[in-house]
């Protein structure tokens, strides 16, 4: 039976079967090849997509805008101060208004409950561009990148180093469980993912052959890894006061060459970006003044090494986000 995702929202990977995720990855690959070959067919002509952002973004916004335009759709961007969403107008009322004007809604913000409510009340497909709990479009890009460099997903060992309770830790664990991978959270015990979500992923793993592990020893976790992945130590929207404690907790889980050396020789390094690997940002300069760090979650040596695939990964946001739109609202 063919996979049909028409009219579906894309809120979290838990909502999708491994077969449906495989379909989206294969469609992403095909759309990427078509774009490179100059033979892409427009399947979203006449469609209108609204991008609703509570949190600023580079990759997510650009990927949705370029992806929609490549496919012939029109895009409206509503930034953090660009609408009354959640301020003078409730999420439910905003959803009902936007659903009458647009064919699809992208939401990037804080609460998972907000993106779920948009999907419930708008009557059109809603795409999760990031919430505090999940970042599903990023995982599609990550997995497409893994396949491009390593050939396949099943059985591959993916280590997520850092705050494993965040949206990336959660989403990579769910994605790995769905696709039969070996997921390891390398983090202090109090920064491991929520127990209920871990148990849910372990139940999924029983069906897919995946393996889900937690480890508080960075080098042990990274031994024989195929992929080492990390993210910023403090997420967007978190208070400045958490920096000191987060640095203290996560410094032992920095991705450096010692971690790369215990992994497989063909290991790839991944990061959803932006990354604090040098002092060339305002945030990094501020942290350097306060804490003396010149690098944070990843060293500059690793970030710029032959193992790093972060910019291919960033490009793949375009192709995978485009696939989600084509699969759900394309002709």
Automatic annotation (TrEMBL):
Xref: InterPro entries: Asp/Orn_carbamoyltranf_P-bd (IPR006132), Asp/Orn_carbamoylTrfase (IPR006130), Asp/Orn_carbamoylTrfase_sf (IPR036901), Asp_carbamoyltransf_Asp/Orn-bd (IPR006131), Orn/put_carbamltrans (IPR002292), OTCase_ArgI (IPR024904)
Source organism superkingdom: Bacteria
Range of residues in the leader sequence: none
Domain Aspartate/ornithine carbamoyltransferase Asp/Orn-binding: 154-327
Binding locations of L-ornithine: 167, 231, 235-236
Catalytic activity reported: carbamoyl phosphate + L-ornithine = L-citrulline + phosphate + H(+)
Protein's cellular compartments: Cytoplasm
Annotated EC: 2.1.3.3
Keyword set, alphabetical order: Cytoplasm, Transferase
Domain Aspartate/ornithine carbamoyltransferase carbamoyl-P binding intervals: 8-148
UniProt entry tagged with the keyword Disulfide bond: no
UniProt xrefs under NCBIfam families: orni_carb_tr, PRK04284.1
GO molecular function (one): ornithine carbamoyltransferase activity
Function: Reversibly catalyzes the transfer of the carbamoyl group from carbamoyl phosphate (CP) to the N(epsilon) atom of ornithine (ORN) to produce L-citrulline.
Upper taxonomic lineage: Bacteria, Bacillati, Mycoplasmatota, Mollicutes, Entomoplasmatales
Protein name as it appears in the record: Ornithine carbamoyltransferase
């Amino acid at each position: 039976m063919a996979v049909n995702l028409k009219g579906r929202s894309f809120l979290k990977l838990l909502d999708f079967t491994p077969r449906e995720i495989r379909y989206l990855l294969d469609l992403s690959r095909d759309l990427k090849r078509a774009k490179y070959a100059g033979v892409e067919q427009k399947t979203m002509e006449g469609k209108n997509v609204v991008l609703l952002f509570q949190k600023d973004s580079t990759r997510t916004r650009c990927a949705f805008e370029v992806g929609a335009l490549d496919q012939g759709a029109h895009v409206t961007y509503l930034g953090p101060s660009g609408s009354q969403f959640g301020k003078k107008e409730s999420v439910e009322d905003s959803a009902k208004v936007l659903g009458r004007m647009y064919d699809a809604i992208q939401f990037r913000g804080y609460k998972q409950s907000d993106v779920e409510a948009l999907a419930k009340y708008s009557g059109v497909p809603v795409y999760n561009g990031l919430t505090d709990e999940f970042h599903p479009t990023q995982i599609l890009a990550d997995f497409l990148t893994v396949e491009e460099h390593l050939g396949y997903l099943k059985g591959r060992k993916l280590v997520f180093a850092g705050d494993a309770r965040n949206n990336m830790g959660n989403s990579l664990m769910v994605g790995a469980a769905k696709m039969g991978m070996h997921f390891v959270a390398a983090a202090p015990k109090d920064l491991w993912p929520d127990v209920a979500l871990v148990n849910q992923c372990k139940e999924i793993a029983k069906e897919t052959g995946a393996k889900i592990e937690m480890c508080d020893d960075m080098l042990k976790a990274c031994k024989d890894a195929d992929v080492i992945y990390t993210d910023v130590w403090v997420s967007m929207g978190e208070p400045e006061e958490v920096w000191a404690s987060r640095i203290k907790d996560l410094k032992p889980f920095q991705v450096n060459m010692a971690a790369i050396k215990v992994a497989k020789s063909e290991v790839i390094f991944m990061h959803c970006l932006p990354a604090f690997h040098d002092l060339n940002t305002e945030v990094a300069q501020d942290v350097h003044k306060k804490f003396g760090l010149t690098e944070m979650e990843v060293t500059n040596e690793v970030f710029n090494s032959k193992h790093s695939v972060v910019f291919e990964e960033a490009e793949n946001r375009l192709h995978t986000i485009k696939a989600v739109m084509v699969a759900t609202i394309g002709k």
